[in-house]
Amino acid sequence: MAMNTQDTINLISAGLGLGMKAYESAVRLSAAGYEVPGLDEFQRRTLQLRNLPDLPEGNSPLPAEARV
């Protein structure tokens, strides 16, 4: 897919806008007393969750209709 200069500018602008929204959300959550982890802490916690063993079959906390 070929991108011209305007497409590149639009993509960068959208990325910056998304980053600003994430930052603003983090500031609001922090001001409301919620813990907002930094990137390193977020990645560490995510890795811990991914390394958890799967639940045994039939022990899902989700209702049957929500399981895929």
Please describe the topology of this protein.
Elements (H helix, E strand, L loop, with lengths): L4 H27 L7 H12 L18
Describe this structure in words.
By secondary structure, the protein is an all-alpha fold. 57% of the residues lie in helices and 0% in strands. It contains 2 helices and no strands. The model has no long low-confidence stretch (mean pLDDT 89).
Parts with pLDDT < 50 across at least 5 consecutive residues: none
Assembly state: single chain
Shape: extended
Approximate strand percentage = under 5%
The first-to-last residue Cα distance is 34 Å
Q: Give, in order, the helices and strands.
A: HH
Q: What is the number of helices? A: 2
Largest sheet features? none
Q: Please tally the β strands and state the result.
A: 0
Overall pLDDT confidence: 89
- What level of helicity do the residues show? 55-70%
Structural class: mainly alpha
What's the Cα radius of gyration? 19 Å
